[in-house]
Amino acid sequence: MEFSGSGVSIEPAVEKRLLQAQITSIDQLLKLNARELLLRPKIGSGTVSKIVAALEEAGLSLAVDPYAAYECARESKLARDAELRSYFLCDSCRDAYAQLAFGDRRPEWVSDERIEGYCGHCNELREVRLSQWFLCGTCDRVVRSLGRGLASAKFVQASWAEVFRDVPGLSLNETDPVELRPRGKRSDVDRVATADFVADHPSGETMLGIELKSGRSAVAGGGIGSPMSQFQLDTTDCDDIKAAAERLDAPVFLFHAQVIGRAHAPTERFEGVGMWFASPWDMLPHLESVRPRPRETRDAAYFKPAMFRPFAEFPVYMKDGFRADLESMRRAGFPTLYR
Ligand SMILES: [Zn+2]
Ligand SMILES: [Zn+2]
Hints:
Elements: H1 12-20, H2 26-30, H3 34-39, H4 45-57, E1 70-72, E2 77-79, E3 83-89, H5 91-101, E4 109-110, E5 115-118, E6 125-135, H6 137-163, E7 171-174, H7 188-191, E8 197-200, E9 206-215, E10 231-234, H8 235-248, E11 252-264, E12 267-278, E13 287-292, E14 299-303, E15 309-310, H9 314-320, H10 322-332
Parallel strand pairs: 9-11
Antiparallel strand pairs: 1-2, 3-6, 4-6, 5-6, 7-8, 8-9, 10-14, 11-12, 12-15, 13-14
Bound molecules: zinc ion (ZN) (2 copies).
C-alpha cells in the first residue's frame, strides 16, 4: 500500500476511497486542498476530516486553497461573502471594534495616513485612519448601523434637553445603549425587553419609556427630503415595546429620528435632522397590514406615517394628554399595537 511507510496512519476504509479516487500516494494527496479533494468521487466531508486529522498527527496538512472563503471577524467563521470592509475610525473606536466586536482581532490593515475627519463609529471630528477587517455582508451592515444609532441617541438627548428646557422635571436616561458585541452575543440587559430610554420624575418614578428607531427618511411635514410612505416595524419590536411597557408599568412611545449622512470627504458625518413620536394608542388605528418583510421570513407591521407627531409637540402632550393615557393604561392595560 502506497500510504504505508509514509508515517501517516490512514484507516483502511479511507485509504480504499483514496485509491478509488485515483489518489495513490501521500505526495499526490498533499498537493490537493480540501475543496479539490471534495470534488473527487466517493469523497465527502467526513472522509476529508479523517484525512485532515491523520495528516495533522503526522505533522502534515493538505494544500492551502487559494480560493478559500475568508473568516468573518464578527462571527469567527468562514463566510463566502466575507470580504475586506473599510471603516474610517478614531484610535479608541478601532480598539473597541477589535476588542468588543471582533474577538480581539486586529485589523487586517490600517492606513498610515492620519486624516482629520468624522469617525464612522463615534461620529466625532477626530484624527481617523482607514481600517480593514474581513466581514460578511450582514455583519458589515450591522457594524455600520451602530454609528448611525449612536448619533441618533445623542440627537434624542440633545432634542429632549432643548424641548424641555423651559419645562424641567423629567430627566431622560439611556437604558439600552448601542454597544459593540460579537454576533449572537447579547448582554444580560438585552435578554429582557427594555426601552431604549426612560424618562424619570424627580421622585425617581419612571413616567414613560422611549423605543428609538433611526432611519434616513423623513415624516411628512418636517425633516429633509421626501417623506416615507409607510413605517415598517418588526412585529417582534412591537412585542418588545409592549413587554417593556408592562415591565416599567408605564407607557412606551415609539420615536423616529431622521439621521442623514453629510460628506466630509473622505469621511461622513451623521446628523439628526428630524424627530417624531407616536403614542401607543395611535398605532393600531394607523396599522395598514402585517406581512413578511421583503426577502425575509420575519413579519413586519406597516403603519401610516400619520401616526407620528413632531417631537416639538411632546411637551404639550405631556401636559395635556399624558395623565389620561396613563390612567387608561393602569385601567385597561397597554394597547395592542398590531393584529
Ligand atoms: Zn471614534
Ligand atoms: Zn458575519
